[in-house]
Each structure stands twice: as C-alpha cells, then as structure tokens.
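Sync notes, pocket subgroup
Present: LS, DG
LS reminded everyone that the earlier model was apo-only. Rerun requested with magnesium ion included. Inputs:
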Amino acid sequence: MQQTVIIGSKNPTKVEAVRNVFSNFEVNSLEVPSNVSVQPFSDEETRIGAINRAKGCISGEAGSIGIGLEGGVMYVDDTLFLCNWGALATADGELFTASGARIALPKEFEKELKTAGELSVVMDAYTKKENVRSHEGAIGIFTNNLVSREDMFTHVVQLLKGQLDFANK
Ligand SMILES: O=P(O)(O)OP(=O)(O)OP(=O)(O)OC[C@H]1O[C@@H](n2cnc3c(O)ncnc32)[C@H](O)[C@@H]1O
Ligand SMILES: [Mg+2]
C-alpha cells in the first residue's frame, strides 16, 4: 500500500515542496489551522504553528504522515528576518522539526507589518504584484529569484524526511 503524506496547506509552494521530496508517496493537501498568530513573530511561535499543522493532518488517518510548514518573522539583534519552520508528525507519535533559510527584511517592513498585520500584504504592496506568497515568495524577491519559496520549503522538507529516514533505518 502506498503511504500517504498530508501537507497542511493549499499554498502551492508548500504542496510542491512536499511532492518534490516525497515523490514516491501519495501527497494530499488539507487546510488545517496553525493555531498561532496569522503573522508569527518569533522562531518559537513559527515552529509551534508548523507542529500544530502537522499534527492536525494526521488525526484520524492510521499510518499517515502529516507535514506542517509555517512562515514567520523574527529578530536577530535589531534586524527583522524572514524565518520558516517545518514539522513532520507520524500516526505513531514521532515528531521532527527543522527550520529553513532566513533572510533580512527591509527596515521599513517593521512598521508596515504592524499596520498590515501580515507579511503577504506588505510584500504585495512592496512588489506591486499579487499573491507573492504563492509564487516566488519574499525569499524569491530578496534573492533576485535565485532561491524561491518552493526551493526553500523543499530544503526544509528534505531535512524532515532525512530525520524520519534516520530514525527508522
Ligand atoms: O495558506 P498558508 O499555508 O497559510 O500559506 P501562507 O502563504 O499564508 O504562509 P504562512 O501562513 O506559513 O506564512 C505566515 C505569514 O507570513 C507571510 N509570509 C511568509 N512567507 C512569505 C513569503 O515568502 N511571501 C509572502 N508572505 C509570506 C504570510 O503572509 C503569513 O502572514
Ligand atoms: Mg497563512
């Protein structure tokens, strides 16, 4: 029987990242709540959002694997960085987490984030594009398209699958 992986988001950058790494698995997507702020503001909160999504995916499905990917922002000294976390939960109770690449955000984003509430709104206004979050993402914009949001999440999912494989070898 083919094992099922459920990704807790309909965002194509996240779904494709899981498909890239779990190419031999059936991959389904499910909208699940992160149960953290719409815009997490720390590593801790972003990671918890990823864990909540991963666990939310596996409930009720025996033998399945749930994955949560969550974007947030966090400070390093006085610079605001984009941060990303992933979590993988199994029906057997295993849990693995890993973080993704970080990149500094423009200084003016701090004030704008407080007004707009969500980075996606600030990004669309900054780039004069629509739905940056579902395409290249902030990381794509600020790396001049060298690293896309899907690339970044693909690396996070590799870190998750690698840990799962190591634990079960
Ligand atoms: O449908 P979901 O899975 O929620 O996908 P999302 O794009 O909203 O992604 P997250 O909830 O994980 O992101 C958390 C917040 O950070 C924003 N965000 C994170 N990374 C971003 C990016 O690369 N580009 C634009 N917005 C981003 C996003 O708008 C959310 O407010
Ligand atoms: Mg979201």
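DG: The radius of gyration is 16 Å.
LS: The chain has one domain: 4-105+148-167.
Action: DG to write up.
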